[in-house]
Structures are given as structure tokens and as C-alpha cells.
């Protein structure tokens, strides 16, 4: 058990992981509430509208790739993360206020999703690389796996909490709670000690391919990276649109309420949480482990 959570012996990583877990739960509360809001409150079970919101929220991460990678490489990551996390918290609170007051419209949800997606596009690569500034190189694989565990724990707990929140208080309060959850990350970033275990510099100080074209060339020359990229592409294209199917089936087939819809999303996360814990217990993962 100690080996499984060995990265937590680093003070900075413990603080960061605690704040990230709270924020991950809030993020999945918002994702669940957002789909429910669009599907049942702003439209009459229009799955296309849910798909458009998802496309607006996740599309920028691909379209802005050259600039987001550059920002993660060149800017001071803690400063960048404080800016992105603070902005996402403000966006969540703004959408929550509109929903709670009954003033929200579908086009506003689309706009918030687009802005949220643009900010997330800069946040995600910086947050993933930031882990390397918090632990020693020997604990980095474990820290990355525990980050995935935190994400999937939020994915398991967040939808269930969102379902209960929507049933008891309404969709808007799930957005408000998500906005408040970002305070945990901002607080953790504030109290981190600089220079532990090594300075949190931009990734440009390490040996890495420069430029987007060089990056693609580097990936293409390595069979293991090509395999992983192809696998992620197939899963992302054909497997990660499950929120649309779950939401429409919950409402149209099973005739569930918000609490039942949240439970369906929670069950989806149970397997991924177990997989991330399995990865955290390994010292290294090869292509055979991925298969």
C-alpha cells in the first residue's frame, strides 16, 4: 500500500493532489449537470444539442494545440495554472448564477462551453506537466498514475453528487459548487514550496523536440508512441461520446431522474478507477501492459 501511494511522501504533491481531487469532483458535477440541463431543461431531449455543447467544450483542445503546448513549455506553470483555474472557477460561477436565477438560455450554455474549452486547452497540458515539478523523476510514473486515479475518483463521485444536487436543489447549484471547488486548487497552488524537489521551470529547460512539426516527427519515429497515439485517437473518436448515449438512454429508455442519471455516470467510472490504481502500483508500464 505504501508503494502504491509513494508519491504522496512529497509535501508539494500531497497538497496538489488534495486540491486536484476536490476540483475533479466539482468538474464532473458540472459536466453531468450541463448535459442534464441541455437535455431536459433547455431542449426537449435533443441529443444533437448535447453533442454541440460537447464539441464546443472539447474541440478547442485540438484546434489550439500549437499554442497550448507552447504555453506549457515556455510559461511558468504555477502562474499559468492559477490563471486558468481561476478563470474556469469564474465561468462555472457565472453559469451557475444564470441557471439558478432562471435566466440561462441554450446559446449561453454553448458560449460558456466554448470559453471553458479554450481555457481548459491551456490548462490541461500545463497541469499534466506540472506533476514533474512536484516529485522526483523516480516517482514520476506513480505520480502520473495517481493523477489519473484522482481524475477517475472525481469521475466516480462527481456525477453521483451532481445527481443528488440536481434532484434536491437544481442544476444551477452543481455549477456553483464546481466554481467553489476551484478554490481548493488555487489554495494548494498558493501554499506550494518553490524549488521542491526541483525548480518549477518551463519544459524548455529539458531536452525535448522543439516546435510542433519536430514534435510530430519525434512521435512518428517511435513505434511505442505511435501505438499510444493511435489507441487514444480510436478511443477518443468512438468511445468518449458515451455522455450523449447515457443521457439520452437515461431519459428516453430508462425514464430516470437526475439521481439515476448521475448513478449511471458513476458506474462508468468504477472500472477506470481500478485501472488507474493498478497502473500506480507498477514501476513502469510497457505496451504489453496497455494491451
TrEMBL record:
Location relative to the cell: Cell membrane
Ranges in coiled-coil conformation: none
Leader sequence residues: none
Listed InterPro entries: MFS_trans_sf, TM_effector
Chief localisation class: membrane
Keyword match Ribosomal protein: no
One Gene Ontology cellular component: plasma membrane
Membrane topology: Multi-pass membrane protein
Family annotation (Pfam families): MFS_3 (PF05977)
Chain segments annotated as transmembrane: 12-29, 49-68, 80-104, 160-186, 227-254, 260-280
Keywords: Cell membrane, Membrane, Transmembrane, Transmembrane helix, Transport
Protein biosynthesis found in the keyword field: no
PANTHER family: INTEGRAL MEMBRANE EFFLUX PROTEIN-RELATED, STAPHYLOFERRIN A TRANSPORTER
Protein name per the record: MFS transporter
Lineage of producing organism: Bacteria, Pseudomonadati, Pseudomonadota, Alphaproteobacteria, Acetobacterales
